[in-house]
């Protein structure tokens, strides 16, 4: 009896060992085929892959490995979609194929934007037409097939503005180092010169209230696949007129009407998200250090620091959860001009439900949490559109629910007479996200701030 049991257990062990050997079997990559990359260089594509020809891949997780690399190719922001396939050749080796639909790389967009922080802020002011900015934005992506980008932005209306920028992610053979640079010139006849009671104060004039020149030059290093470092030097030259100075003598450094100063910034990013434009899985870490001044005036020179953490969780059955955290703090005891003072209420640093407010300050924390369901995720064919880059329309729709928290440290002085600063803020609500091609994301939300309903909010923008 015991002999039978021992033989039976030995048989099970042998079968289990054989199964593990088979499932963990390796297969050699014989070739990697790229199809549809009419402009994009193969070296740019190979930079994203974590395997190469002659490598051996496990058959157990082959599909998972290839899907992982497909997502990295999508994150180059060069393609509308990426597909993969593979087959075994007669020698028993692996042939991997990636197929692409490249974006239109020469894009010209009309500009129709608002001088206000968001659409809700503009509507709250009565939707004044004089606060509309219009113009043209021209972008040349993937200039020579190496993922370079040249952009020009011309604006008129509320502001007069010119932006020129260029970036090249890789300037060396090993694809590790990149450069970027930009130039901006802007004049404003309507200007937010300060804030009171968590609302921006504006000055209107027929004369130019502020003239600004700025330039940036930077270097980027990519370590392996997910780690990025960048170092950038920013120069600002700003002039304000007598009215602005009289209303806020702290608008520029050292209480002057004209100032030029330099900022030196360092950023480290670890980006392990599935899709940078609208992530559903993965995580991202950002660490930023800025040094402003470098003018010899010790009163103005100061550091500020930023830390960001994002986490994205798949919950199963098309449900997802995301949580983002951001912390910013400034060197204690240093005078920061209003031009460089930003707390909550700007850009993505908004507690949903408080879109109409700005809480100015130099130290803040914000946490945004979103629960979502993937209702639609399809590519629609539009036959009456001629070009394949626009007649295949990817569309994803996500009903959402959210809750956010934020806090701004305003100090004892409370220069801006803030009612919301120094308090824990929270906002919650429901919404709908629509994601389509060329990184266009539309978000519609119905938020409430600290228990008070604040109406519908709509935002439309190109992410990444």
Summarize the structure in words.
Keywords: Membrane. This is Bacterial surface antigen (D15) domain-containing protein. It is found in: Membrane. The chain is mainly β and 464 residues long. It has a domain at 2-102: membrane protein fhac (Ubiquitin-like (UB roll)), CATH 3.10.20.310. The chain has 6 helices and 24 strands. The strands form 3 sheets. It has an 18-stranded antiparallel beta sheet that branches. A 4-stranded mixed beta sheet has the order 2-1-4-3, with helices on one face. A two-stranded antiparallel sheet has the order 10-11. 20% of the residues are buried. The model is unreliable at 8-23 (pLDDT under 50).
Search tags:
6 helices, 18-stranded antiparallel sheet, 24 strands, mainly beta, 464 residues
> How many β-strand runs?
24
Mean of residue pLDDT? Answer: 88
Q: How would a crystallographer describe the biggest sheet?
A: 18 strands, antiparallel
CATH class of the domain at 2-102: Alpha Beta
Q: What letter string, H or E per element, gives the SSE order? A: HEHEHEEEHEEEEEEEEHEEEEEEHEEEEE
Q: What's the SSE blueprint?
A:
Layout: H1 2-23, E1 26-35, H2 42-46, E2 56-58, H3 62-74, E3 79-88, E4 94-102, E5 106-114, H4 119-124, E6 132-141, E7 149-157, E8 159-168, E9 177-188, E10 190-196, E11 199-204, E12 210-223, E13 227-240, H5 242-247, E14 258-273, E15 282-293, E16 302-316, E17 319-330, E18 363-373, E19 376-381, H6 388-391, E20 392-409, E21 425-436, E22 440-449, E23 452-453, E24 457-462
Parallel strand pairs: 1-4
Antiparallel strand pairs: 1-2, 3-4, 5-6, 6-7, 7-8, 8-9, 9-12, 10-11, 12-13, 13-14, 14-15, 15-16, 16-17, 17-18, 18-20, 19-20, 20-21, 21-22, 22-23, 22-24
């Amino acid at each position: 009896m015991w002999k039978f049991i021992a033989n039976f257990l030995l048989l099970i062990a042998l079968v289990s060992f054989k199964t593990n050997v088979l499932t963990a079997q390796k297969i050699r990559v014989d070739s990697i085929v790229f199809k549809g990359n009419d402009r994009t260089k193969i070296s740019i594509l190979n930079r994203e892959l974590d395997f190469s020809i002659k490598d051996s891949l496990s058959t157990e997780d082959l599909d998972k490995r290839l899907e992982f690399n497909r997502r990295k190719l999508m994150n180059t922001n060069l393609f509308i979609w990426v597909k993969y396939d593979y087959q075994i050749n007669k020698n028993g080796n692996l042939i991997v194929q990636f197929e692409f639909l490249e974006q239109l790389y020469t894009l010209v967009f009309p500009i129709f934007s608002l001088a206000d922080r968001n659409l809700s802020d503009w509507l709250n002011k009565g939707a004044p037409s004089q606060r509309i900015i219009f113009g043209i934005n021209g972008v040349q992506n993937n200039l020579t097939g190496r993922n370079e980008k040249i952009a020009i932005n011309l604006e008129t209306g509320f502001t007069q503005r010119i932006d020129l920028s260029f970036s090249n992610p890789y300037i060396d053979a090993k694809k590790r180092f990149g450069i970027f640079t930009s130039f901006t010139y802007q004049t404003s006849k309507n200007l937010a010169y300060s804030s009171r009671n968590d609302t921006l104060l504006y000055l209107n004039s027929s004369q130019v209230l502020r003239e600004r020149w700025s330039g940036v030059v930077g270097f980027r290093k990519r370590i392996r696949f997910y780690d990025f470092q960048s170092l950038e030097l920013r120069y600002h030259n700003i002039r304000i007129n007598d009215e602005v100075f009289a209303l806020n003598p702290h608008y520029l450094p050292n209480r002057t009407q004209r100032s030029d100063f330099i900022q030196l910034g360092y950023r480290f990013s670890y980006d392990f998200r599935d899709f940078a434009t609208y992530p559903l899985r993965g995580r991202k870490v950002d660490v930023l250090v800025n040094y402003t001044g470098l003018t010899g005036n010790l009163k103005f020179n100061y550091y500020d620091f930023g830390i960001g953490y994002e986490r994205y969780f798949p919950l199963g059955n098309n449900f997802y959860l995301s949580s983002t955290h951001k912390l910013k703090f400034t060197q204690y005891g240093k005078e920061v001009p209003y031009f460089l003072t930003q707390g909550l209420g700007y850009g993505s640093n908004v507690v949903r439900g408080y879109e109409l407010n700005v809480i100015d300050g130099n130290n803040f924390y914000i946490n945004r949490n979103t629960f979502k369901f993937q209702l639609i995720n399809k590519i629609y064919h539009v036959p009456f559109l001629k070009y394949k880059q626009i007649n295949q329309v990817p569309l994803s729709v996500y009903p959402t629910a959210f809750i956010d928290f934020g806090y701004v440290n305003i100090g004892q002085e409370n220069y801006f007479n803030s009612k919301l600063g120094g308090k824990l803020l929270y906002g919650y609500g429901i919404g709908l996200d629509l994601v389509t091609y060329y990184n266009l994301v539309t978000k519609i939300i119905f938020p409430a701030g600290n228990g008070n309903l604040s109406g519908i909010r709509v935002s439309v923008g190109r992410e990444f």
